[in-house]
Write a structure and sequence with these properties.
699 residues, alpha/beta, Rossmann fold, 7-stranded parallel sheet, 6-stranded antiparallel sheet
């Protein structure tokens, strides 16, 4: 029950990886200081709230996943409000404010939030506060912090108007006299351009002036002269500023060590996304030469005895553990190494001040300490500011304490971005940098997010290789740097590479080998179907594939599938196929030289390759990148897209490739249609809308 002395508002969140929930919890926590009470629920808990009868203001925090989809926890809600039989005044009684989370590296920025916002408007709901769109590419906090600052004034006015409508205006006279007239100083916060970014900083500063948090009286620490700022050191003005730091998050977890033994939970119990399948690795092949800059591996899985189904173009997820040596290092620092194999019981503290506290769903009630740290918590996660704030209380050295306060403060926002966020700093890095910081195990459980399964594109066809699933990946490398004392491999790719190392040295493990492997290594996977990135339903429709590096992965499945269809249906008409592939060196990282086989048997009509780091003695230098080769084939590309109504697929790196390919296509359309660039961009947008220009990209 909500406290009657405080005015209630409904707070809904929909999260995929925990960001939206953490922000909603921050709003709930701050509400009390403003005389308000947040009735908080996950959007999926539709039995605990009812927007059809809701009278109080509603605050929504929602993330975006995949290629612009609402998070899994919002799917039922979105499906319900998308009902076309709902009248346009269905939510005419509803007042709401929405904060969307997204990443501008992806095409459909904040589309989860935009979808809900747009539909609520169509059904008659009214904004009591402008929509905020936060960009994880540059830092969510740049929009989130000022949006929350401005929220309280907007909520109080909405509640005041609601009371007046109910004939209770006399009860709010005192409140109304204190409200400023210029309420909507914080406009829609969307970091879609540098101009808006500058505008946001200015507005955020004004909002902060109106609603500044209580200043912590922290003594500034003077830095050594001539020093540059770093993870552990600050310089003026940050080092000499009084700091606005977040409120200390309330503790809510307690951990009890138990003598009794038992069994750890099965991995499948940790996965909320659906059925998991434990499958053997039957083949592992290194696709790059030893001297290549990146190491690319192909793994083959045996799914014959499972109900796992997929189409070429689908993705799937691999359930992976944290690096065991990193977990052991963490246990040493925490002074818990001897207790690694002991069972721990995780419960909610009885006297916690956290509203609606519950044990996180990804944390088993009982398991060994090592199991918890290896399989449940993302120990490589970039620490959020709330976590840094909590770590302050676990730090004994005054200088270290001050620096952690700076990094989580409003004044230290740029330092946080530079030395934490952009440097990919994790908990272990922080504990090395601030050795007097000794957090408790319960604090880690409260603040470290769920260890996420990693997603990979399928690189095979079940029609071509029944009972087999292949995928390709680069082993990710994080070099040592000023904020990271040691180099590390990617959580999942590093683990997979180590797991299959014995297979890599087997002579049977070549792309052409058909023999069964004696490997007993198994991994747990679950499907992540892609609703759009599939072959055209009509085989006579031509299509273009652009996939440099490991971006070629799904197109191997496309071509295998097409080859089998051609064998099975010789009377069918098949459209032409184009593949644009690029890599650094022809002799080091040309991942699939057998592409020539698809060319020779007619499955692939045109193969265009380029090598960005190979030197050339030719008079005219060959093109280096796939976007350059596309421009050389401008007439054919335009014909396939415009005249033949074909499809265009792009897979690979977003930041350094997919945007350049998109720009090249705009240039091609503009040139071949003899239209201006704006018109060409509209054509490309229409192709995207018609699902004929499709991307499977990552940042």
């Amino acid at each position: 029950m909500c406290c009657e002395s405080k005015r209630r508002f409904l707070l809904l969140y929909a999260t995929q990886k925990g960001q939206a929930k953490a922000i909603a919890e921050e709003i709930q926590q701050q509400a009390g200081a403003h005389g308000l009470e947040a009735d908080m629920h996950c959007m999926s808990e539709m039995d605990k709230y009812n927007l059809e009868t809701e009278k109080d203001p509603v605050v929504i925090v929602i993330s975006t996943t995949g290629t612009g989809d609402p998070p899994d926890t919002a799917r039922k809600f979105v499906k319900k409000i998308q009902d076309k039989t709902l009248p346009p005044d269905h939510f005419a009684h509803l007042q709401y404010g929405l904060l969307g989370l997204g990443d501008s590296e992806y095409m459909f920025f904040c589309n989860g939030g935009r979808t809900v916002d747009r539909r609520l408007q169509e059904l008659g709901a009214q904004h009591f506060y402008d929509t905020g769109l936060a960009d994880d590419c540059v830092g969510l906090e740049l929009v989130v912090d000022p949006w929350i600052d401005g929220l309280w004034l907007a909520l109080k006015e909405a509640l005041q108007l609601q009371k007046e409508k109910e004939g209770m205006s006399n009860a709010v006279d005192a409140v109304s006299s204190s409200l400023p007239t210029a309420l909507h100083a914080v406009h829609e916060l969307s970091l879609s351009s540098e101009v808006q970014n500058l505008k946001l900083e200015d507005e955020g500063a004004r909002a902060s002036d109106v609603l500044s948090r209580k200043l912590d009286d922290i003594s500034p620490v003077a830095p050594a002269r001539g020093t540059e700022p770093s993870l552990t050191h600050s310089v003026p003005p940050v080092s000499q500023s009084a700091l606005n730091i977040p409120a200390l998050p309330p503790e809510y977890i307690e951990v009890q060590f138990q003598e009794a033994q038992g069994e750890n939970p099965h991995l499948s119990s940790l996965i909320s996304e659906g059925t998991t399948f434990e499958v053997p690795v039957t083949k592992a092949v290194r696709l790059t030469r030893e001297d290549a800059i990146k190491t690319a591996l192909l793994l083959e899985l045996d799914i014959a005895d499972t109900a796992f189904e997929y189409q070429p173009g689908d993705a799937f997820c691999v359930v992976c553990p944290n690096n065991v040596s990193e977990v052991e290092e963490l246990l040493h620092i925490l002074g818990l190494y001897e207790k690694g194999d002991s069972f721990v019981c995780v419960k909610v503290k009885q006297d916690t001040k956290k509203k609606g506290a519950s044990r996180p769903q990804h944390i088993p009630e009982r398991s060994t300490l090592k199991f918890l740290l290896i399989w449940c918590l993302e120990i490589r996660a970039i620490p959020k500011k709330a976590f840094l704030r909590a770590l302050v209380e676990c730090t004994s050295d005054a200088g270290e304490k001050r620096r952690l306060q700076e990094l989580c403060s409003r004044q230290g926002a740029s330092d946080y971005t530079r030395f934490i966020r952009e440097s990919n700093v994790c908990l272990l890095d922080l504990l090395h940098a601030f050795p007097s910081c000794k957090p408790s195990l319960s604090l880690l459980i409260e603040h470290l997010p769920k260890l996420q399964a990693r997603s990979y594109s399928v690189s095979s066809s079940n029609l071509y290789q029944p009972g087999r699933l292949c995928f390709v990946f680069n082993v990710v490398e994080f070099p040592a740097g000023p904020s990271r004392p040691v180099s590390r491999k990617g959580v999942c790719t590093g683990w997979l590479a180590e797991l299959v190392a014995p297979l890599l040295h087997s002579s049977k493990n070549t792309l052409d080998a058909k023999g069964e492997s004696s490997s007993t290594e198994k991994i747990s996977i679950f499907p992540r179907p892609n609703n759009a990135f599939h072959l055209p339903a009509d085989p006579s429709v031509p299509f273009i594939m652009v996939g440099p590096g490991t971006g070629i992965s799904p197109f191997i499945g496309f071509l295998q599938h097409r080859q089998k269809l051609r064998e099975q249906h010789p009377d069918w008409e098949f459209g032409e196929t184009w593949l644009f592939f690029g890599c650094r060196h022809k002799d080091r990282d040309y991942l699939f030289k057998q592409l020539r086989c698809f060319l020779e048997n007619g499955t692939l009509t045109h193969l265009k390759v380029c090598f960005s780091r190979d030197s050339s003695t030719a008079e005219v230098a060959p093109p280096k990148y796939v976007q350059d080769v596309l421009r050389l084939c401008a007439k054919e590309v335009a014909r396939v897209l415009l005249k033949d109504r074909g499809y265009f697929y792009v897979c690979g790196d977003k930041k350094h490739m997919a945007d350049d390919v998109s720009d090249a296509v705009v240039d091609i359309l503009s040139m071949e249609m003899e239209a201006d660039k704006l018109e060409a961009m509209k054509i490309l947008a229409m192709l995207r809308e018609a699902k004929r220009y499709l991307q499977d990209v990552w940042s």
